[in-house]
Amino acid sequence: MKKAIHFGAGNIGRGFIGELLVRSGYEVTFVDVNAELVDLINERRAYDIKIVGDKPEIIHVEHVRAINSAAHPEELTKAICEADIITTAIGPNILKFIAPNLAAGLAERVKVNQQPLNVIACENMVGGSTVLKGFVEENLPEEAKEAVAHYIGFPDAAVDRIVPLQKNDDPLLVQVEPYAEWDANVTQAKGEPPQIEGLTWVENLEAYIERKLFTVNTGHASIAYLAYRKGIKDIYSAMQDKNIVDMARKVWQETGDLLVRKFGFDPKKHEEYVKTTENRFRNPHLSDEVTRVARGPKRKLGAKDRLVSPATQLLAQGQKPSALATVIGAAFHFDYDGDKEAQEVQGAIQEKGLHKAILNYTQIPEESELFRMVENKTAGF
Length: 381
Prior knowledge:
There is one protein chain. By secondary structure, the protein is α/β, with parallel strands linked by helices. It has helices spanning 11-23, 35-44, 73-82, 95-112, 128-139, 145-151, 205-230, 235-238, 242-263, 267-281, 290-293, 297-300, 308-316, 322-331, 340-352, 354-362, 369-380, and strands spanning 2-7, 26-32, 46-51, 57-62, 64-68, 85-88, 117-121, 152-153, 157-160, 174-176, 181-185, 199-202. It has 2 domains: 2-203, NAD(P)-binding Rossmann-like Domain (Rossmann fold, 3-Layer(aba) Sandwich); 206-380, N-(1-d-carboxylethyl)-l-norvaline Dehydrogenase, domain 2 (Orthogonal Bundle). The chain is built from 17 helices and 12 strands. The strands form 3 sheets. A 6-stranded parallel β-sheet has the order 5-2-1-6-7-8, with helices on both faces. Helix 3 packs across helix 4, helix 9 (242-263) crosses helix 14 (322-331) and helix 14 (322-331) crosses helix 17 (369-380). The longest helix is centred in the middle third of the chain and has 26 residues, at 205-230. Its EC number is 1.1.1.17.
């Protein structure tokens, strides 16, 4: 049986990437520092996934084990030497913390195993594998760098599956939605790219990253910020509000026009992708708190993120992104006291004024028509 290592034994690791790897004929070794979780996986060597939606289903996943990387780094090194693929789902901020152990394992591997190996960071970020590669290189001994660069690939990936907040009686049970998408950059792979059910190797990953970012993430954030202004608590309830849904559809029309023009997506297929996304948000089993989806407005209002980036690109194409300007305006009113970024943005508005806050957080040039649109929409809420 082929061998896979997956960093992160949490819900996304077990409920998404780990399950696809097992389904594709791999024995999966989860790597985590949660001793109780590691021990339970090793005790059972299996767990269940519950698909929630119109057609609920239980999937039983076997051929799994786990390593506590904090307690047994030498066991992890041995596993890396024997692995056929390595993946992660730990969160962007944690990548730097796994790099020392990963680097140590790869340095040993290239001495004893010259088979190509691909390391794929399956994180909700752009260029996750490239970021991880940088952290690994910082931790590699000088004598191993050339061999690691030759044999080890770090293909960037785009991933998409909703794994809702949950508390189950069985600590290994994971509830997930039916939909799942995993794309990876074939041009960054070493050797023959591993064929994994549910993983699509693509040459232009940017297109799929932006399709997901400007459809799923943009739509989710738009609904959340509009719902917060109305005092609606969860996404499912927001999707019952006609005005919010109508505005979300206008946002999707704008981002869809951009994506079709920029990357040549088939308009009908993209329309189906948007409808699928809307239906995902209507799944009552996946409903998330509005304040959790809207959290981090400082990041979400960034020039390269889900709201400002498509609006800026549309303006450059000669289009007027009115719906996007509306939700950007709503984001500047997100004042949830449980979110540090929200409080920072609100403090900046109070201290320096709305004009300077928009300029600071969005980096939209103040002479731009988009800047005037956003300022008018924000003031109008």
